[in-house]
Amino acid sequence: MAGKAAEAARELAAEGVPQALASGDSTLWGPSAEAEAAIRLGWLNLPLTSRELIPEITNLVEKAQAEHLDHVVLAGMGGSSLAPEVITATADVPLTVLDTTDPGQVLRALRDRLERTIVVVASKSGGTVETDSHRRIYEQAFRDAGIDPADRIVVVTDPGSPLEQLAIDSGYNIILADPNVGGRYSALSAFGLVPSALAGADVVSLLDEAADVHPLLGEGEGNPGLELGAAIGAAALAGRDKLLLEDALSEINGLPDWIEQLIAESTGKQGLGVLPVVGADPGGAGDELVAVIGTGDGDLRVEGPLGAQFLIWEYATAIAGRLLGIDPFDQPNVAESKANTNELLAAAGEGPLPVGQPLLTDGPVEVYGELPGNPKDLSDVLTILLNQVPGEGYLAIMAYLDRLAAFDIPVAEDASFDEMADAWTAADPATLRALLAVRTDRPVTFGWGPRFLHSTGQYHKGGPQNGVFLQITGAVAEDVPVPGKPYTLGRLQLAQALGDLGALTGRGRPAVRLHLTDRVAGIAHLLHAAREV
Ligand SMILES: O=P(O)(O)OC[C@H]1O[C@H](O)[C@H](O)[C@@H](O)[C@@H]1O
């Protein structure tokens, strides 16, 4: 394997690819990708060009500090929030990220220090429904509290987007991003820097870290981006196309979630692609490739501080894309689930969404979908799904739930940290990943919906068709209207789940939806059923 990676890197160097990529050559991915690539390579120079933003960002930060706005909320999906999440977690500064349509999770943010809240509305396209909904909800909440939204909303978007126009009309602070950078490559652009700086992270150091590796990107030797991209691309071509991302020993917090979007959306298309697997222990399957961030054992190790990591992984993804023969800058299948969601909402009008009849009900969990083998209960359903995963395939769990709800679980006042952690784990739907992973030698992934729709969702629909899908939705206790729209967040969330389910079943993939009629009891029941064999 190491030999194949080195050979691929040598060949790429002999063809002059590193120099061409570093100088922004848009022809590297073939004629059909050229037009898109021509407007998508700006990320290569962000360590230098983003410095122009620093005075503007510093002004914004000083103004927010002067007004004591210390609760920073970021509304943004995919590339518009994943990088700030890692940057702030690594810098250990608080940032509330809204990349959900879960009413409970949005209400938690809304009810937290509104009088000291500043909201960054970040959307490259300016048309993303989740972000648009969050903006509407916060505008209303500020007005209801007698606060002028123009004093509290900062917009980050591309020049010319509908959101820019709206922000101008509304008198919002606007920071424009470099339009020649795609969403998932935008970590070092205004999308990564503005919310992170407001939250208190040192973004100049981040740019410095990236600038340190920048000169290496044109090199044929000693180029970490070339080596990583050649290793990922050569491994995938040889059938090792499940990329396990390990960061347990790293000082960088949460980078695998950002890498997941970059790799899954960039490579998962035309029936090809590399599946990132986050949070899993290596299972020894023949198609696994283990990449370690910082220190630890794996097939690949990527060293360096966060700013450098961003640039190296972006460059590596562009290189892997060339080796795989795909366009690493488009996301052709993401729109499909969005279109399904819009159609479902429009067709239902004010009536109920077409959820269908449950196949079975097991306590607080309803099971929707078609399955072979006549399952009698939830335990049977999970066993059948695991058995359906093909030899080269994977199981994807997709939870359209509140990802912070587990922390609401009551714990005894004198509980130790370990006891608290056990209580959270027992209430966390994400625990299902590990419980099912021990029952199969195939990778099991976990994504929060709709967040993953802007990440691995592309791979699920555009990559190799060997996934098996387990959706989880939940009853809504308290819903949130979206001002100016005919739907609530809860309705949008369910329509998103159904829209994606339709896209998956339409491809003939096995997919079921588990609906928790009582969320807390349903998660406990589900985790219990997953333990039974
Ligand atoms: O920044 P936005 O235009 O709102 O886009 C947010 C996300 O939306 C889409 O789903 C794309 O597939 C992602 O790559 C992007 O990061």
TrEMBL record:
Q: Which domain of life is it from?
A: Bacteria
Q: Which InterPro entries match?
A: G6P_Isomerase, SIS_dom_sf
EC number assigned by the record: 5.3.1.9
Q: Which GO terms describe its cellular component?
A: cytosol
Reactions performed catalytically: alpha-D-glucose 6-phosphate = beta-D-fructose 6-phosphate
One Pfam family hit: PGI
Tell me yes or no: is Chaperone among this UniProt entry's keywords: no
Similarity section = Belongs to the GPI family.
Protein name in UniProt: Glucose-6-phosphate isomerase
Q: Which gene encodes it?
A: pgi
